[in-house]
Amino acid sequence: MYEDGTVDPIYQAKARVLNNAMQEIGMGKYQIHLFICAGFGWFADSVWPLITGLILTQVTAEFNFNGPFLTLAANIGLLVGAIVWSVGCDIWGRRWSFNLTLLIAGVFGLSAGGSPNFVTLASLLAVVGVGVGGNMPVDSAVFLDLVPGTHQYLLTVMSVWWSLGQLLCSLLAWPLIANYSCPEDASACERSQNMGWRYLLFALGGITLLLWCLRFFLFTLVESPRFLVGVGKDAEAVSVIHKVAEYNSTSTGLSVEHLNQATEQKSGRAKRPVLSRTSVYGLEHVKALFITRKMAISTTLLITLWGIIGLASTLYNSFLPYLLTSRGAEYGDGSLSITYRNQFILSVIGIPGAFLAGWAVDLPYIGRRGTLAISSGLTGAFLFASTTARSSNALLGWNCGYVFNSNIMYGVLYAVSAEIFPARHRGTGNGLVSTATRVFGVIAPIIALYADIATAVPVYIAGGLIIFAGVLAMLLPYEPRGKASI
After folding, report:
1. Residue 309 has pLDDT above 70, yes or no
2. d(CA 386, CA 26)
3. Are 110 and 202 in contact (CB under 8 A)?
4. For residue range 153-212, what is the model confidence (pLDDT) as tens digits?
5. Does residue 445 sit within a domain?
6. Per the UniProt record, which residue ranges are transmembrane (predicted)?
7. Measured at the alpha carbon of residue 211, what is the angle toward residues 154 and 167, in degrees to the nearest 5?
8. Helix, strand, coil percent values for the chain (each to nearest 5)
9. Does residue 2 belong to any structural domain of this protein?
10. How far is CA 390 from CA 331, 332, 411, 417, 452, in A?
11. Average pLDDT, stretch 292-307?
12. Cβ-based neighbours of 34, under 8 Å, separated by 6 or more
């Protein structure tokens, strides 16, 4: 997939040897369990950014503050998490990042339910964001490093966990907030009358901690073999491959000698490369993603795509429950029960999108770029169409189309970024694009502070931006379809 000079030739030769070994082992029990455990990260990345929109109305009624400030605090935490964990996993390895992110999210999410005031709630949700912000960059790198090249499309299907997170969050919010919130006509909203959003945070914090326990105590994550060869630990990389083979009840003929031969073919016996240098200096990982003109264009386009889509989606999704309530009130059916019923329906609609995306990305002539472009265009089109709704049900219908296509769009975007970045720099690359979407996620609530979010203006902006992103997707110089990631 890469032109000469893009990837260190010695690392590339060793990565191909590891790819052959992983293909020899095949798709087995370890990869299935990893799909589940890594999927917990997608789940958390779906649940916690969504939570601020779900509880916004009730929290503002109780604490009397300007609503977008809560979303701003959460997104600042997500931004910090994206930077720290993604760059860190290329420096100190994947395992620590993989195991700590969910723990932080669960502990502080559970604590947020007991917040006595807005400042405490915003601070705790910001720390939750620090944990959650590392899940997508780290977990996608972990999964791609340990799955055979023939099954890389499963990284796109992984977005089903994102949809399941939305589904569970909406399913819990529906009865809890509808039944345990202050009456809409109440002159004052006391804590005892408004426990629904607290129950929701307690439930989601507990579930996140449970998921952390499952993947920490019941599943042993091995270190990425590509990371290990990138820091000169060939023997450990071979040992990891054999552990995966043993877990799958199969075997591989890989040995350290195979990696040494790959090195000698590229550098000669007298020359021993020092591969660990880029593992120490984070800036070297960034430079490597712009090392050639083609790679620089690819990295820049991916950062731009994530930034544009992050701004558009955050601007729209963060205030979707508010939009459904306010528009529903205009149409005479804006009760909390109907609002969260609609949110639940939207969550269900997103699930089949993940499987359709996994099928489409391997289609000839379409691949990753085509699927991303088509789904982005349709996502933007449905957003524009939603402005024509003259009833709550019509608005719900248009939003169903938006959610279905946006889940495909995000599933492909998450996968194609990880596939394009070389494994040695994948954490950093994932961090750059995640940082872009988090930066614009911070900008979105600032826009909402000074814009009238009850009008259709944010919808037009979001739709236009996403359609533009679909055009940019066709300009990506690399198409990972049919190519094993290194």
Report:
1. yes
2. 45
3. yes
4. 999 999 899 889 989 988 898 889 888 988 876 678 888 889 999 999 999 999 999 999
5. yes
6. 32-57, 69-89, 96-115, 153-177, 197-218, 301-324, 344-363, 395-416, 428-451, 457-478
7. 65
8. 75, 0, 25
9. no
10. 8, 11, 31, 39, 19
11. 93
12. 142, 143, 146, 147, 219, 221
